[in-house]
Amino acid sequence: EQLDLNASTALDVGFENQRIVKGKFSLQAIETAKLPAHTTVAARELLHRMLDPDPKERPTASEVCEHPVMWDVEECMEAVREIYDRRIVNSLTEQEETDLMQSVWNGRSGQAERAAQAIRNWKSIVVPSLLVRAEKYVQRTASMQQTWEEARAAKAAAAAATAKSKDKRKNRRGRVQTQQQAPPPSTVQEPKDYSYGNRLFDLVRFARNMHEHPPLEAERAEMLRALGTNVTSLLRPEDTAADPWTSSRKIVEAYFAHTFPDLPLFAHYLLKRDAEATSAATTSAASDSATAAS
Questions:
Q1: How far is CA 175 from the centre of its chain?
Q2: What pLDDT digit, counting tens, does each position of 243-290 carry?
Q3: Residue 26's Cα: distance from chain center in Å?
Q4: pTM of the prediction?
Q5: Are 139 and 147 in contact (CB under 8 A)?
Q6: Distance (Å, whole) CA 153 – CA 186
Q7: Contacts of 154 (CB under 8 A, 6+ apart)
Q8: Which of 76, 149, 157, 164 is most enclosed, with most CB atoms within 10 A?
């Protein structure tokens, strides 16, 4: 009986090995492991790479240690903020955002489309009161920008009128008027559009702003309700018992990691790609300097 059990186990292992070699393995157990959402998504992506049939495509030990699967919610938000504050995500076109999602999920179209759909629909997913407050802030910012532009244009017009008046007085005194180039007309520029769109950049900006300007008490309660039973795995008791500002930021970190679990992965890949580009540029510059010196 024992021998039969061992033989059965060996057959099962051999069968699973063949599935891994063919890239047809299942990671269903991750979905039922009751891990935080961002950890589940990151683990799925990492394990797919670790089980790649081509050894050259598998991550190194250091890459595994730096992967978002190891991050807590605070580290997730730090990475999201960094790609915004360093203007890494800001420069991406819409097509480049789509390419990023495909690259992260390495041809697994189902996962890439799931993530893309969450990004496109993020405004209908977030707690409504958060978006309302953010949009009001955007409107105030746009109004202040327009007022400033109008004031600057009025000041320029007044300066031009004063200069013209001085020229007329000089002419009346018999002085020769020098040919001057007419100043460009002062026009009020169209106010910038600060509203939130449906792209990755907009979601990253929204998350960063909510973390920078923590929500109010009622909004905190709504986010906690949205987290549901996941609160205990994402937040420590001292996180919610801290002062209102700190507590709100902790809740924001947990909320975005849970609601948009692909965000840390995208931030990780963008930061990694930026570091590689910087390293390559530095190496190239050093090589050029060495060549010039020789």
A1: 63
A2: 999 999 999 999 999 999 999 999 999 999 999 999 999 888 888 888
A3: 29
A4: 0.77
A5: no
A6: 6
A7: 186
A8: 76
CB atoms < 10 A from the CB of 116, how many?
19
21 closest CA partner among 49, 60, 51: 51
Task: Report whether 125 contacts 203 (CB < 8 A).
Answer: no
CA–chain centroid gap for 277, Å, is: 18
First to last CA, the chain: 76
CA distance 59 to 231: 31
265 within 8 A of 292, measured Cβ to Cβ: no
For residues 67 and 42, is the Cβ–Cβ distance under 8 A? yes
Note the residue count of the chain.
Answer: 294
Distance CA 269, CA 265 (A): 6
pLDDT digits (tens, 9 = 90+) for 184-217: 555 555 656 778 999 999 999 999 999 999 888 8
